[in-house]
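Q: I'm a student working through a structural biology exercise. My instructor gave each of us a protein and asked us to get a predicted structure, then write a short paragraph describing it. Mine is Facilitated trehalose transporter Tret1-like. I'm not confident about reading structure output yet, so if you can add a plain explanation after the tokens, that would really help. Here is the sequence I was given:
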Amino acid sequence: MKLSLRTIFESQNCLLRRRNRIQFLATFLINILTFIHGLGVGWMSPVMRDLKTEDSPLSFSVVVEEISWIGSVLGIGNVIGNILVGLMQNRVGRKLVLHSIAIPHLCFWLLAYLAESVEYLYVGRLLAGIAGGGGYVVLPIFISEIADTNIRGTLGSMVMLSVTMGILAGYVISTYVAYHTAPLCIMVLPVLFFVCNFFFPDTPHHLIRKGKSAAALHSFCFYKNLDVNDSRALSEFDELKMKLTKDREMERRALSYKDFITRPAFRAYGTAFALLLANQFSGLFTFTSYMTDIFAASHTTLDENMCTITIGVVQLMGNYTATLLCDKYGRKILLFVSCLGCAVSLVAFGCFTYFADNPDYAAHLTSVDWLPLLLMALDVFLGGIGLVGCLFVVLVEVFPAKIRSQALSFFVVCLSVSVFVTLKIFPICMEQWGISVTMWSCSGVAFCGFLYFCCFLEETKGKSLLDS
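A: Happy to help. First, here is the predicted structure for Facilitated trehalose transporter Tret1-like. I'll explain a few features afterward.
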């Protein structure tokens, strides 16, 4: 038994291996931010439905148009956060940016607690979007810069895993905890993150680029759990420093528009656009925000809040599966399975609701009214193992090293714009088209993503971030 455990802990891919422990701990702690972001998304889903009723937990109620703005203003905040953090992170460093992200998260929960009109929720969701959008820019870069290549996919996929954990926790809290109690408890988390982040240095990549060699060496050895005087550590650090310094000099001298119009660059753009469109317009994130409304429209007799919590659990399982399989089997196969599975399950979901709307068939479906829950669970699980779990892993890895920073920033902004669009139009589509056509449309997008990935996607497993 001792030999078996020792073999496991000495495996290069084991997160508890001596060299990997600090990288794992740092990734876990900074993902408090993504957990808080997920909490806000999950908590608002049942709350937004309650706000439309006479039993609103606040002193006012809202209409569908206002709900669509409460949901979608998160996307506007994401764009602002993407741009602000994109401009700041190379100037002030990843650590200080992470510090600053905790503040708007805190403000969102404070405004939710104090809300006296719908404008409080607009501003709060905008701030939550700024924090979430900024986190989606800096966290994948921070993780990729402290992680060894063999565990980078696993640690990178933890970003969406922690978001999903937060969403599930938000579903549960909004169902069982009083509206004004939840914000008071959750406000502790940004403060906790603020304290924990003090103990971690900035990434060695950033410190090298700023010419702080001594601090960079300390950071490198800290995250690799090596002694500063270890010859192996010094050798690895010198190699990293030489490559980064060389790449930085080449970037300053030679980066031009021609670097953005090469064949590898265009291939990366295509993959990134396909990934973003499949991720957003297949409805995976949008469903999360409007899950209670979806089940209310699905003709199931099961309790909508319990269905929503169940989906949160399944979503968590899907994202956790991605962390287990991402570095073992690669990104490509997970995206194949994810897209095709989402397409099939959403077609089936749309067919069920279509026939359930017809009085001639509705009576025959009462015995299988659990089917919408099963189909939605299948959709979010399969979406979680690929389109969600591998999203930021692939976005970081797919671009050529020379243009990675600029291209990644641009595509994260595109992601945030699509978040706004999908959150804004989804409740309107549900009202105008009905749930069946809406689900079939999302299925079509997922299937197009499957076709694209079959033809054009290249595997990025094991790719060095310093490679072109």
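A: Here are two points you could use in your paragraph. The chain has 22 helices and no strands. The chain has one domain: 8-200+261-456. It's a good idea to check both against the output above yourself.
Q: Great, thank you!
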